Amino acid sequence: EADIYQTPRYLVIGTGKKITLECSQTMGHDKMYWYQQDPGMELHLIHYSYGVNSTEKGDLSSESTVSRIRTEHFPLTLESARPSHTSQYLCASIPFSGSYEQYFGPGTRLTVT
Amino acid sequence: AQSVTQLDSQVPVFEEAPVELRCNYSSSVSVYLFWYVQYPNQGLQLLLKYLSGSTLVKGINGFEAEFNKSQTSFHLRKPSVHISDTAEYFCAVSFNYGGSQGNLIFGKGTKLSVKP
User: pLDDT class for A2, splitting at 50, 70, 90?
Assistant: First the structure.
């Protein structure tokens, strides 16, 4: 089973602040994903990466940005947080090429006041 | 366009009763199918998956699902639920095409509430 870590688990921050949500995995997975999930709603893909220096936007438009400088690390950044960014952010990864089952981290619940 | 529909947003059921959570998808290409469970304030945990082979797949916690290609469905079942099964369940589909291969599309989720 994959080990995927997300920090912080909970974050309350004021409007206009810059934030970075961390996601890391220890299994050398190539593919990593960020999802946004509003309370009681489905998950929407906002970013994904197929490897180092590879990043793509997902189906849901997001003001956040991502980077993939190391295989194990896939941070998500919001340059200027707004209340509309309040949501849960879930990170996931796929163990190996050809596998389609994504393994999820515990999530970061972000509240922007 | 590809889509996933979970027909019931909430399913209340009594403990030890059977349950079925319904999922339909729309696609013109081959698919891989998944059910995930989410407990409060946690990430998603894989319950089971269909990639190929037998259309009846068994997963963790006594859950099973059946892939029906003609009806484009992948319903989740459990013959006898427990209080601990109370959670939200998401059906997800991966469409086997192009540059988005492996990306998942999720349904809106079904909240299963098991009452004593």
Answer: low
Does B103 touch chain A if contact means CB atoms closer than 8 Å?
Answer: yes
Name the pLDDT band for A109 (thresholds 50, 70, 90).
Answer: very high
pLDDT in tens, A22-45: 999 988 888 999 999 988 788 899
Say which of B41, B44, B102 has its CB closest to residue A94: B102
Q: Please, which pLDDT band fits residue A101 given cuts at 50, 70 and 90? A: confident
Cis ω on the peptide bond leading into residue A8 (within 30° of 0)? yes
Q: Using alpha carbons only, give the angle A26, A32, A37 rounded to the nearest 5 degrees.
A: 115
Instruction: Provide the shortest C-alpha distance from residue B108 to chain A (in Å).
Output: 4
What whole-number distance in Å separates Cα of residue B66 and Cα of residue A21?
37
Alpha carbons B69 and B62: distance in angstroms, whole number: 23
Q: Which of B71-87 are b and which e, b meaning 16 or more Cβ less than 10 Å from the residue's Cβ?
A: ebbbbbebeebeeebbb
> ∠ at Cα A96 (A102, A76), nearest 5°?
55
3-state secondary structure of B62: helix
